[in-house]
Specification:
Radius of gyration: 17 Å
Order of helices and strands: HHHHHHHHHH
Number of strands: 0
Largest sheet: none
Oligomer: single chain
Shape: globular
Length: 204
């Protein structure tokens, strides 16, 4: 995530990301707490029902992105205090999602930024990384209390290979970001959400 945020700076400058620090703080207010609780629940709860709920949510978001929003960052769905509350609630849910499934949460963060705050799709990608990094660190800290990280030591080679691959991938993605128009990125995101929804629904 850190490397992806760095490599995206050619297309989305750091100053532009930092100028939206209130949005980042708004989502973090919920996502950090959600990640802490989510990591705790993940060590105790059965996930099958959760997978179904999240799959349905992803499918709905994919449909809304395709049918109800403009690529260039249209008007936010809500504003004022309602937007603040919606940001915290969305962040809390995304934090739980990220911690339980062990993902960064961009699948929900980017749509939340586009729909709730009217962010451009490319800016939303960078803002989601800025929120995801501290959110995942909180989730990791909670998991470490239950000795859930022992699996990392047993799979160290796989972990290093995947980490190296992700850095290379984020570099290539950062280069493509400046070339691929937003009009292409939004349908791609919607397709990823739809595929993720199907995979989660089928998860046993």
């Amino acid at each position: 995530m850190a490397s992806a945020l760095l490599f995206r700076t050619r297309a989305v400058p750091v100053d532009e990301v930092l100028s939206h620090w209130l949005i980042i703080a708004n989502l973090l207010a919920g996502s950090l707490l959600g990640a802490w609780f989510g990591a705790g629940w993940a060590t105790r709860l059965r996930s099958e029902t959760l997978y179904k709920v999240i799959a349905a949510l992803l499918a709905v978001i994919a449909a809304v992105l395709l049918l109800g929003h403009q690529v260039t960052g249209g008007a936010a769905l809500v504003s004022g205090p309602a937007q603040l509350v919606a940001g915290v609630v969305a962040g809390f849910g995304i934090g739980i999602f990220a911690a339980v499934l062990g993902v960064a949460g961009g699948e929900l963060l980017i749509p939340a930024l586009v729909l709730l705050f009217g962010a451009d799709i490319k800016l939303a990608g960078s803002l989601s990384l800025a929120v995801s990094l501290p959110t995942m660190l909180v989730g990791f800290a909670r998991y470490s209390q239950d000795r859930s990280f022992s699996v990392l030591g047993r799979n160290r080679t796989f972990l290093l290979v995947m980490a190296a691959g992700s850095v290379v991938g984020s570099y290539i993605g950062g280069l493509l970001l400046g070339v691929v128009p937003g009009a292409v990125l939004l349908p791609i995101l919607a397709a990823i959400l739809a595929i993720s929804a199907v995979k989660l629904w089928q998860h046993k």
